[in-house]
Design goal:
Bound molecules: S-adenosyl-L-homocysteine, iron/sulfur cluster
Number of strands: 12
CATH superfamily of the largest domain: Aldolase class I
Oligomer: single chain
Low-confidence stretches: 93-97, 326-332
Helix content: 25-40%
Number of helices: 13
């Protein structure tokens, strides 16, 4: 899978006119060709040439968990025998917004993750490799094919740290948002990060009006250090400096993701500090009761404690949603399904 400019360059190398690029992009993104053979308006020699080098379908569907009306999780096999997960969440008004006819897809950006947050299944087995732009974009194409639904909202909240795969992320975003590509508007795309400061500043420079979510999970260094090793490199103060830079470039409100873990970060005192932090960058907060991960000891607070935490924020004037989780029963926390598959326990 290639971008428009990559294709134009490649076709020039093959002595082909540039209008072929439009034809090919049309086959890939509009007609959803599964093989180069289908592109009958291209010369056969060109098709054969490209087919050897650029597989159109780098992912193979292995398994679906969940039912048509609920969250569906697709386990996908990559060319090298590894697995990633993509989660399709049907109409979910509580997630990032107003519309209720949205189909949100949660995509992975890496195999595993190097950041090792202590509550997260994706980090449990370490980092394997980055996904290519084609592997990122193919998740959307495949999810649409498997579900028969158009993905109209996208979150980079699957496996991996998207900002640690910055180059491929940017190429994927170009394919996803362009008129010649999947044509999903920047405002319908949320990139989530554990807080890579330099990359947040770089992301702010992109032309697309994408949304930013920060996996904060601790309102101060003391709390965040306990569960997110990345905080030692980019402490809370520096992170919020980068978020102010983001705000100076983009209009969309930042979302602070906050997992509630009993005895770690879920006391009313934490909520008070969080409220101040959120107010300082005009962010909204998304509270997520911790989702049990096999092999990890953390537990979620009671529903009452979660609501109390939310109330502290609301009373401080911060818009805070408490996510009534979907997909809790299908290993929906990122990385869980793939870990089971790779360990042979699925
Ligand atoms: N690496 C990026 C993108 C992955 S997003 C990031 O961390 O932002 C995955 C989201 O799910 C993050 O907000 C992460 O903190 C959250 N998450 C991870 N493990 C979880 C668990 N066990 N329960 C609930 N949320 C979890
Ligand atoms: Fe990686 Fe994000 Fe999981 Fe942390 S929360 S280990 S950064 S995927």
């Amino acid at each position: 899978m290639l971008t428009q400019s990559q294709l134009v360059e490649l076709l020039a190398d093959h002595g082909q006119p540039s209008y072929r690029a439009t034809q090919i992009l049309d086959w890939i993104f509009k007609k959803r060709a599964k093989s180069w053979d289908e592109m009958t308006n291209l010369p056969e020699s060109l098709r054969e040439d490209l087919a050897g080098k650029y597989p159109l379908r780098p992912l193979k569907h292995t398994l679906t968990k969940g039912s048509k009306d609920t969250t569906r999780k697709f386990l996908l096999e990559l060319g090298d025998g590894r697995y990633i997960e993509t989660v399709l969440i049907p109409a979910s008004p509580a997630l990032y917004g107003e519309r209720s006819d949205r189909h949100t897809l949660c995509v992975s950006s890496q195999i595993g993750c190097a950041y090792g947050c202590k509550f997260c299944a994706s980090g449990l087995d370490g980092f394997t490799r980055n996904l290519s732009a084609a592997e990122i974009v193919s998740q959307i194409i495949l999810a649409e094919e498997l579900s028969g639904e158009k993905v109209n909202n996208l979150v980079f909240m699957g496996m991996g740290e998207p900002l640690a795969n910055f180059k491929n992320l940017c190429v994927a975003l170009e394919m996803i948002t362009s008129d010649w590509g999947l044509k999903i508007g920047g405002r319908r795309i949320t990139v989530s990060t554990s807080g890579l400061v330099p990359q947040i500043k770089n992301l702010a420079e992109l032309p697309q009006q994408i949304r930013l979510a920060i996996s904060l999970h601790g309102p101060d260094d003391e709390t965040r250090d306990k569960i997110m090793p990345v905080n030692r490199k980019f402490p809370v103060g520096e992170l919020f400096g980068a978020l102010r830079v983001w705000n100076s470039k983009k209009n969309q409100k930042i979302t602070l993701e906050y997992i509630l873990i009993d005895g770690i970060n879920a006391d009313p005192e934490h909520a008070m500090i969080l409220a101040k932090r959120a107010a300082s960058i005009k962010a909204k907060v998304n509270l997520i009761p911790y989702n049990k991960v096999e092999g990890l000891e953390w537990v979620r607070p009671s529903d009452t404690a979660c609501r109390k935490f939310q109330n502290v924020l609301t009373q401080a004037g911060i818009s805070a949603t408490l996510r009534l989780e979907k997909g809790h029963d299908i290993d929906a926390a990122c990385g869980q399904l793939r870990l089971k598959k790779e360990k042979g326990t699925l």
